[in-house]
């Protein structure tokens, strides 16, 4: 049981505190409710660019890394389609350093043309390195565009094209910052060897005077139901052929998300999972095969990816995967197999919440979802899933007309 307190400042900043006196450390996590899905189609990659810009100095802090390191800590951040998250870990006795740093860059960034120019180049190089020059690096670009026709999930977090970041000007940057990086669009979580009243006082001291903003209401277009099989084949400079099957799945807050998550484990987690055991070990049709879910806040993707073994065609590989999916749809999974997967999911949850940082990140995410107490409920949710639930979601989701297939063919 992870106990926490929750309060809200007058400017709208939501604050959660988890006290843990078993560690000398503390984690400070600031989540902003903005991600790639909030961008314009002609200005993508801005949320990710801002992750970089937030380390370029602020009103009173010219360099972000030095103060946190001098306090014995470290920091980092990540961006995805749904949110942007910054975090600091440091000795609990030095926690005020993190409050000073995070509040100052929430108050006002260093709107410097030099910083913007440097970070533009960094992000463009990252785009080239991870998407254009890496084998299969454009997979999410191609697959997202294949699946989504209306919803902004049709572009990945890095952006559609480098030109959108290259064209980012100072007016664009300032507008994005003052629209989304406001206290009433943020969640502050502190976890570790702290006291709630101490954190309340520090939150009021460092964040209380930052003015709230006019955050625009989110009105994203709903993605229509997919009604036909879609496919794309690309010849590319990749080591071997590859196949990706993407199925539309439930949103992160939907109870069916947990069932789909268990389905992915049944298919491809560990040596006893079905696709790994039947297609890779026994039939030797694949050199590698995996399955994962996107966990998007809006309806996301259930993806199966595989590299066919030498001499196995993409058509034969796809047919073998579909054969296994049909078995799963037409037979109730045995009790021991299901219980093993549920126990593994529960143990993964427990291990993911061992550190103060992970607790802080998870609490912030569940607060974003609207129920921070999900951090204590999820293990029970997994344990309640039945074989009938697995079969129902498999039949609803793993349909050909709900599938988008991407194939890479290795150039000779």
Characteristics:
alpha+beta; Cytochrome Bc1 Complex, Chain A, domain 1; 412 residues; 15 helices; 2 domains; 6-stranded mixed beta sheet; 43% helix
Question: Could you characterize what this model shows?
Answer:
By secondary structure, the chain is an alpha+beta fold. It folds into two domains: 203 residues, Cytochrome Bc1 Complex, Chain A, domain 1; 181 residues, 2-Layer Sandwich (Cytochrome Bc1 Complex, Chain A, domain 1), CATH 3.30.830. It has 15 helices and eleven strands. The strands form two sheets. It has a six-stranded mixed beta sheet, with helices on both faces. The chain has a five-stranded mixed beta sheet with strand order 7-11-8-10-9, with helices on both faces. Helix 11 packs across helix 15. The model has no long low-confidence stretch (mean pLDDT 95).
CATH class of the largest domain reads Alpha Beta
Examine the secondary-structure arrangement and name the CATH architecture of the largest domain.
2-Layer Sandwich
Order of strands across the main sheet: 1-2-6-3-5-4
Whole-Å distance between the termini?
Answer: 56 Å
What is the β-strand count?
11
Number of helices: 15
| Major sheet attributes | 6 strands, mixed
Average predicted local confidence, pLDDT: 95
Portion in helices: 40-55%
What structural class results from the helix and strand content? alpha+beta
| Helix-strand string | EEEHHEEHHHHHEHEEHHEEHHHHHE
Q: Which of globular, elongated, flat, extended, rod-shaped describes the shape?
A: globular
CATH topology of the largest domain: Cytochrome Bc1 Complex, Chain A, domain 1
> DSSP strand (E) fraction?
15-25%
* CA-based gyration radius: 23 Å
The overall number of domains is: 2
CATH-level-4 superfamily name of the largest domain = Metalloenzyme, LuxS/M16 peptidase-like
The low-pLDDT segments are none
